[in-house]
Specification:
Layout lengths: L1 E7 L6 E6 L2 E5 L8 H14 L6 E5 L5 E6 L4 H12 L3
Parallel strand pairs: 1-3
Antiparallel strand pairs: 1-5, 2-3, 4-5
């Protein structure tokens, strides 16, 4: 399953939840230096979805705040439900 995320690197308070322009909002404290923020996004999203970080792949947007992620090896319906809840979180 693929989905888009909007990343805010260097955030004071890391958080996965909410929606920005139809994408899952992800805030990480790491700065966008040498891929640190990308790795932090993958770890944060994996925790929020209850999957392993190695099961998430960054498909597009390495140098952009808007990224396309792919989760492999899980039921798409369960992931879609979890994403829906995360997007609608305050």
């Amino acid at each position: 399953m693929r989905f888009s995320v909007h990343v805010q690197p260097g955030a004071r308070v890391p958080k996965v939840g909410g929606s920005k322009a139809g994408s899952l909002s992800v805030r990480v404290s790491e700065r966008a230096v040498e891929g640190a923020a990308n790795e932090a996004v993958i770890v944060a999203v994996a925790r929020a979805l209850g999957v392993k970080p190695r099961e998430i792949r960054l498909v597009h947007g390495r140098q952009s705040r808007r990224k396309l992620l792919e989760v492999a090896g899980h039921d798409d319906d369960e992931l879609a439900g979890a994403l829906h809840e995360l997007r609608n979180a305050p």
